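Record type: ASSEMBLY
Status: queued
Input:
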Amino acid sequence: MKKMLRVDVSKGSVKMESMPAEYERLGGRGLSSTLLINEVDPMCEPLGPFNKLIIAPGILGGTMAPCCQRISVGGKSPLTGGIKEANSGGISAQKLGRLGIGAVVLEGRDPKALKVLYINKDGAKLVDAPELKGAGNYEISKILREKYGEHIGIASVGPVGENLQFSATVAFIDQDGVPARHAARGGLGSVMASRGVKAVVIDDAEVPKVVKAKDQESFRQTVKEFVAVIKARPRVKNRLPIYGTPGLVAFASEVNSFPTRNFSTGTFERVEKICGERLVELIDERGGQRGHSCYQGCIIGCSNVFNDKEGRHKTSSFEYETLCLLGSNLDIDDVDAIAEMDRMCDDMGIDTIELGGAMGVAMEAGVLKFGDVDGAIDAVRQTAEGTVLGRLLASGPAIVGKVLGIYRVAAIKGQGFPAWDPRTAWATGTTFMTTPMGADHTAGRLQGILEFDKMEPGFCGKLSSTMQAQVCTQDSVGLCQFSDGTPESVMYLARLLSAYFDEPWEPEDIVSLGQKIFRTEQKFNELAGLGKQFDRLPEFMLHEPLPPTNSLFGVDPAEIDSYFKDLKDV
Amino acid sequence: MKKMLRVDVSKGSVKMESMPAEYERLGGRGLSSTLLINEVDPMCEPLGPFNKLIIAPGILGGTMAPCCQRISVGGKSPLTGGIKEANSGGISAQKLGRLGIGAVVLEGRDPKALKVLYINKDGAKLVDAPELKGAGNYEISKILREKYGEHIGIASVGPVGENLQFSATVAFIDQDGVPARHAARGGLGSVMASRGVKAVVIDDAEVPKVVKAKDQESFRQTVKEFVAVIKARPRVKNRLPIYGTPGLVAFASEVNSFPTRNFSTGTFERVEKICGERLVELIDERGGQRGHSCYQGCIIGCSNVFNDKEGRHKTSSFEYETLCLLGSNLDIDDVDAIAEMDRMCDDMGIDTIELGGAMGVAMEAGVLKFGDVDGAIDAVRQTAEGTVLGRLLASGPAIVGKVLGIYRVAAIKGQGFPAWDPRTAWATGTTFMTTPMGADHTAGRLQGILEFDKMEPGFCGKLSSTMQAQVCTQDSVGLCQFSDGTPESVMYLARLLSAYFDEPWEPEDIVSLGQKIFRTEQKFNELAGLGKQFDRLPEFMLHEPLPPTNSLFGVDPAEIDSYFKDLKDV
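Status: finished
Output:
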């Protein structure tokens, strides 16, 4: 039986409890969201004393199941005012799984405490860490790995989280100890910081390396088959280990869905300077790494290590979204400058999507300048320094737009848009509108589906609602989205869970699990006051055609509502 | 029959229309709110092309009815995201009434145009006014009165409105030509500016001075009786013409409901330095004026003219709310400094309540300092200069709290609290929660009713809902709230409207008119996504006792909801 760790810094309490029966078959997002609706008042102030911050590996964290080491961070989001699950790679899910811990729940409010929560085979304790005050995630990783050993996992908040900013991340180190992985969206870093925890150290020394299923023989057989299926997928064979997510840059710009200059066009004229192909050239020239894995044992390796011109490490996990939001969206084509900003964001613990969106709006307002590399880097620096401009930018594009009087702001439920423009990517736009998370690209991956959907009425609503429920399941099992995407995955997940729990799981159970989690999250948002009026695209996107193809979003909101109403009845 | 003036700067169109039949018996707030729900999508972006800005005198504007020259400004509020009516004194309702204009409706979006809309007996026209770009309301008044004569009325936006800030006002000049009167709340100045209008000039030359009722004889008789009743009221006899609204300062502090240092206590230790009695001493010493009227013919004269130490005019209409929010709330006891800030706010066109609340939060965050007079004055200056700090402060306390990570923010529906703390003023707190306007002291005046209400369950909800509907009627008739407050007013209003329209109006009609307007506004907010979750006090106020009496708000939200649910059924 798994355990749940409850920590309240304001009371100084650390309790390791048995996982309650109602949560035994949940993990990751499903566990986090269910805990939140059961224990957190949806009306509470996200940074006040009544919110909780939950860190939960997926159900299969620590097992041999392929690509199942994602970790969920949950809480009420200060950015959206709704429920939030932000998902990350790294080595921490594996280690929490090995320790038998299904969830770490941080409670109470004590924003000045900033303790280290140390977890190992013997339990957990709070440790004073005054030396970490104001520290960036790189420094935190260095100090804590020196102190506790290089085998530990770390979840931490940088200075932007300490400043209680709405775009603060929870950073997770990868297998190199680099804080390149983030539960980035929705400002959960500020929720963690306001609970009084600066870092969580997960020390899995002296525990078995593999978590066993109840029916380990059947589990092993399913793993073997699923590994082969994943490896055979074209994108896993041909794209992800070579180009990673930046492999989408050229495609997105070509189909006019690549946000450029604060979402004023979908095609970046100098895309060849920041696309995946260019990145790979530079990585190879400079002795970086492609096909990099965020944890040991990954069979995809979508990540990368990007070095500077002198061949020194600059950043890891340099992603598509960052290349767009801190690149084309700011009219910046200098990939080294974008890499510098990516590293700074990793270090300070700030969401590159939210910050890039905010800077784009500030550029439209004339407070920053499009294409001004030095100005952009300086602005990123200010987010950690806590200047008024820095603090404003670290609040995300929705707030920047309000303060600077900008009408054209790409945000839903207060959360800035990822790097897809709904005016050409209708199905993805439908997900942005309807996910309880605010505009979120991980809530229902449909980026290949473009406006030709208009040929089939109802297509976008149906597809998005199905995908969103599917993602809820993946995020609960801990399954990386890059491994998935075909109907047979549902069957493999059913077989894996059947073997893991040694009880019958049918494909329908996998589907209904996701639907139930989605419904739980919708319910939380309804209780928090986020009704269907919050499930809408920004007004300007409905009326301003997107050059150069002059596309407009063409899905009827009423039609979308009808699909999500159905899902509410689950 | 009255007329409606529709102006769209983006199309260059100016149309004088007959008032549609459905609006003939409406005026002021009732007309504005009904127009908004009929013509404006509640989901629209407040500063986008689909919002409208409505300026409407009350039904009895321009008549001889006592204290009936209030003017309403309406639109969807950028600050609250809901419907907004902000109400002002001054001379403009009278002049619009004389011109037979029931509403000026500004449509379309053209934030760079900033035209003057000139209205006189012959019609209306748009005039280029490049000389007014960036001008403050004092300068606007000077320039326009020089150009068009000293008899005109003016509604204008200062630089804070031009910057499209959420606390920008629509300023109205008083009978001295001083822009001391404001439709201050909810950022309607930015809605006006984004419609492309910098100022509206109302020239009533060569029109009859008094608007006649259909049954003028009966109207005249009722006016005579009502005047006597108003003049006999104790506060009209003893308090308002001497002390004006600042006469409440000492009382509010004594009963521990006077927000001090960002709402951290309800009693200001140095209240004697900023109270009404002190103000009157200074006014008399320096040759200022008390018992001042905002328009010619007022029988109360609640206003004042406050001079500096050299006897030169500093500010007019120096009010209770300003003395608190820019005084005690900032730990400032220097009444001349507060007067200086009041003048600056009048000039720049920024709501003193919203700005004072924002500065209090910035002081709690350490960005400004409590009690720092020079720092405070400099910060006020920055709101017009458009520095990042100035722009942030001009966005109101709710946004300042989000950006600076402050938990203790006194705001409802995004609008900052007026100068009453609900932890002692329960009935007023109930109004703050439930008015569709966001925390608003003019939505249901109950400041004399303190926490002893707890003796009677249901008292606050019942009283507040009744008062709010009553205020809706007053704001539609154009009746100043200071004239009112007794049951017999309803009877006099029924008699006045009976004579004005020459048709039977019963007291029940007066009550149901207000209820219907309130319901219309609730409906708009529901459609805009502001459900009952937005009718709540800030979390910290529910848990933090208010020193020195350690009061807590004690009205059950469910009980409050039940009263406002009843009103929804009207």
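Annotation: Chain B touches chain A through 39 residues (CB under 8 Å).
Annotation: The mean pLDDT of chain B is 95.
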